Amino acid sequence: MRNIQYNRSKTAGKSCIKTLGFGPNANSAIVDVDRGKIIRIRPLHFDWKYEPPSYNPWKMKVHNTVFEPGSKTLLAHFSLAYKSRIYSPNRILYPLKRIDWNPDGERHPDNRDKSKYIRISWDEAVDIIVREIKRVKEKYGSTYAVLLQSDGHGEQKTVHAAHGCSARLLELLGGYTLQTRNPDSWEGWYWGAKHAWGMEPVGQMEPVTNAMKDIAENTKLLLFWGCDPETTPQGLDGQMASRLCYWWTQLGIKQVYICPDVNYGAAVHADKWIPIKPNTDAAMKLAIAYVWITKGLYDKNYVETHTFGFEKFSDYVLGKEDGIPKTPAWAAEKTGVPEWTIKALAREWASRATSILHGNGSPGIRGPYSTENARLEVLLLAMQGLGQPGKHQVKMIEWGLHGRDPMPLSIKVPTLVEANTGSYVPIVWNKENGVPHRSMGSNLKPENIFPKQFIPKDLIHDAILNPPISWYGTTLLFAPVEDQFTKYTYPAEGCPEIHMIWTDSPCWITCWNDSNSYIKALRSPRIEFILAQHPWMENDCQFADIVLPVSTKLEETDIHLDSGNGQYRVLTYENQCIEPLGESKSDYEIVRLIAEKLGLLTQFTGGKSTDELIKRGFMNSGIQDIINFEDFKEKGYFVVPTDPNWDKYPAGMAGFNKNPEKNPLKTPSGKIEFFSQNLAKYFPTDNERPPVPHWIEKGESHDESLSSERAKKYPLLIVSNHPRWRVHAMHDDIVWTREIPTCKVRGPDDYAYEPLWINPADAERRGIINGDIVKVFNERGAVLGGAYVTERIMPGVVYMDHGARYDPIIPGELDRGGAINTISPHNLTSKNATGMVVSGYLVQVERVNIDELRRKYPEVFNKKYDPAAGLCFEAWVEKP
Length: 880
Description:
Number of helices: 27
Radius of gyration: 26 Å
Largest sheet: 8 strands, mixed
Low-confidence stretches: 1-11, 424-449
Helix content: 25-40%
Number of strands: 39
Oligomer: single chain
Strand order of the largest sheet: 7-6-23-22-21-8-9-18
Distance between the termini: 31 Å
């Protein structure tokens, strides 16, 4: 690369502000551009154009130490290296049509992910899309035959929204079938903990105001239960969680990590690591309760005044219900945690103010029967006086999401809903009237009611391959707990089955459950047309019939909000950094083209230009009375001042602790329920989610424990974390991180394989050494990986992050890229809980001979591949 001498005052280039987080809102950055090229990305300094007193910097003073925000944003490595992703060799540069897909003839759905593509013009692409929409509508009676996939993480955009722009257009055409995103990071909390303590919308503790300050002042023991504060928060919120952990160490607060692996947080912060087998946390929590009950080590007065149904729980723990006391010795056999360790933890927890920290809940919240683990955590917190000083459940991620923020509050919480042409979560629940609706700006659309046909994301494969299907709950993020007792059906009455898929979030394969079955669904003749729009040729794009190139946010002008960095809330005016690569257009511009061809442009845009939408978003943001639009646009950002009274607000659930009658929870009793009255009422015979949380080793939905007969063939449990070097499916092509051994393992074929962590004892038993290429498999399929032999994973357990890019050797059977979710379980969390299971299941591992595979599958191994960045767009394009 050329050595560019950068001079701020004399450069011919420019510096643009962009939020470069990849979830809700965070990570404000400055992008330096010279002669039309990105040269670097660096943190935004809050004091660049404002004097610090104007935004009222906060301070936490504890034990003669001071914790305060820095002068700049704490960018994640993803953000700093994002230039690599912008210029990835896998960028889609122009519209594509699958070479053997003929909209007027044979469509060859069985060749999806096999056949290549040819370049077509935008005019041809839009013409085909419009004809297909009209054809599907005429053939099946309505556009409910179109499945809209428009949810998930992605670049943070507002006017050029990364997800959901097409929903408005399909509404204008008469409706669509919505893919409702199951609460994938919160499964156990959503389907389990809500029945113990309410806590809308996702079942995690609320309120959390000033929880971090109270922890610093009063907590003596922190339990990071499956939490990795050095990984999970990075791409969404930056590095503030890391700074907090270092401060807590300085304060002398003990930090204990309970997880199968020495994760990146444990490696630098843990005073003690307690290794535990995946998906056995419920057994350990029951054993802790056993110690407390038998030794009288719990807050009896709190349990009497703040909870409901403790006697039934106690009967189960003591074995009066089933004849099995849940002793530490009993739990040790299940969990792999020694009996004395469980006893010691129980006693220490009972003797000291203890809080539990989470990323979102770890793989333990996304495993079989994770509802029980989640509920039991709530009950243990209650037994020790939840809401008392130093006693909380707190997240190290998504600060500000759902209005929850454990860090110092600002005077305003800005919103940009009036500029949003799509939505991060396409459908939300209207708290005023109980009706689900789209969350776009009110002037962009009429008040549309929730589509009458929808399919939970974790049931898409069943809906396509085996209709009709039914399930409980919409699975919508903001749906109240009562929705979990409503049964829904697909196809809905009066609606057709789906025959077209329109996706702007094509990462289902590498992020959701049993995606080998999903691959079969995508290749079904029932799906006549798949349209994908995305910046990179990856994952589900490889199955599309038409692929449209999307620009990144660095190629667009927009407005955005950074509300989750843990320091200050920042509103940003985002100038375009560079011209769009190739022929790419924003998601919003793409749908505008299609709307125009359909004669619906004015209805779709509301007659508003992009600039007008940006200004309207600002004028309804909540800060328009503090700074005018012209000054905001000129400065490029605004730092919202800290609330001068931020430290006066009660911490966490102090109100409930002080007076539960005046601060009731959203449960039938208004209290924490050891015995769930709702589950007893609506699912009285459900032995997979009974009214009192149980240890469920196996059931009709799952048999994934080491005691299973299946374990004789698949004797290892796999844990799949939120990835260290990606945010879900994003960033797998950043060349800097791919050089790190825990990011990729270089094979003898020069392919960068996804690491599989394996304990030396398990590796030696299989003749595996560090760097070998291995196969991870069960009856659902197989995935290749690179062996990372380490003591950082406990024996009997292997670990592979989800989110690697799918690169099949045999589609639906054998993947080279490391997309581990292709072999995850098919069934839901449990029979009446419509969550997904993507960790804590049985596999086997064996060494493979790459040379033998190369001889057997020469086309796969000889396709174009970039040794530094990985997959290449050109590998899919047929040359003229």
